Amino acid sequence: MAKTLDLTNGPIARKLLLFALPLLGASLIQQLYTTVDILFVSNYLGTGASAAVGASVLLNSALVNLFTGISIGAGVVIAQAFGRKEEVQLSKSIHTSMMLGLIGGVLLTIIGEFSGSAFLNAVKTPASIFQDALDYVQVFFLGLTFMLVFNMAAGVMRALGNSQTPMLIQLVCGIIHVVTNFLFIKYMSNGILAVAWSSVLSQVLSAIIAVYYLLHDGVMSIPKLAVDRPLMREIIRIGLPAGLQGVVVTLSNVFVQYFINGFDVVAIAAFTAYYRIELLFYMPLVALGQAMMTFTGQNVGARLYGRVKSGLRTTLIFGVGYSLVLAAVLLYFGRETFGVFYTDPAVIDMGVTIIWISFPFYFFYVFLEVFADTLRGGGLSDVPMYIVLFNQCLLRTVILFGFMQLAHDIRLLVAVYPITWGTAGAMLYWYYRKGTWMMRPPV
């Protein structure tokens, strides 16, 4: 295990940054070739094809988010075993996780293949794009097993402190995906299937490379693949709440979009650009949270609770400092930033209004992300789920309804975001301060 990073000793700030930067790089790579996908579909295949792909996004995201949560649970269990230096338990955790990835992928593929048509009918997919959307969904789910195996393998590597290799695999397969996207669209008669098969190919390659790496590095052995039931229950106990949180938050965003759509086209366009710009905040903070989750897992496993607290303080300083500096830069260059996306002065004006309400308070989100991931790293996943769902789904929706009754004002809609970031962060901080979550017995 040459590239593992032991986070239980050494300089905290340096190790957290070394671990977090490849996580950020992986997120940027994923975002870039997702954007390329959109560009290929919209520019080469037209609006109908783009709509057909878009019709399936919610189903794809919901199922992938669910199993991404399971991989989070696996990562925590593996990180804690690594921190305790329990080689036998570590090996069992890794092999159980990989088997769960394989079994879960096969099950979700079957579910997706049989539920695709029903889902597209349920969301009232127009008849004109229904068959194209169904074709895309059915091919997409053929690659889902490979996607989940890669996600689990990447989770294993990160839990052992190796965040570089998953990023490099994503980079290589992302380039292959872009190239095959172009070639398949050019030479296949059905453009939708071309895009779908290109995605499947990149998923297959990423899974093969990741599994080969684990085998070659001695982390995994095919004969040892088996499900240890106590470990499986622990992985699901930690991972399922995180997965359900991702699914429900994804679905709840539909309600927010409902309110946005109640304004004019200018507001909708401004929010479309805002969500792209917001990624400059969101992705680095998610990377910091993921780094803190692994850091916590390893150090809770080693019973180094003081080091967990020091790591948390360091991560919060990084996150808050980054958020405040970036907010200042983007607010100063607000018009130029939105000008990258639109030339319409009305859209730019609306965009600047949005960021002046949101970005100065984005540091609230740091507390939400970092405290939630710290608790998960300690093996506690249900409480962060309840807190995040209460604030991001229920409270946010209630406040939105109330604000929109007071006045149909875009500024009130935007204000809901920092309010619920703040309330969620405060509740997570309160639970973190109780301290009892760190004393859970090992698996």
TrEMBL record:
Gene Ontology terms: cellular component: plasma membrane
Localization in the cell: Cell membrane
Biological-process GO terms, alphabetical: monoatomic ion transport
InterPro entries to which the protein is assigned, alphabetical: MATE_fam, MATE_MdtK, MdtK-like
Keywords: Antiport, Cell membrane, Ion transport, Membrane, Transmembrane, Transmembrane helix, Transport
Protein's job: Multidrug efflux pump.
Family per similarity comment: Belongs to the multi antimicrobial extrusion (MATE) (TC 2.A.66.1) family.
Protein's name in the database: Probable multidrug resistance protein NorM
Organism: Succiniclasticum ruminis DSM 9236
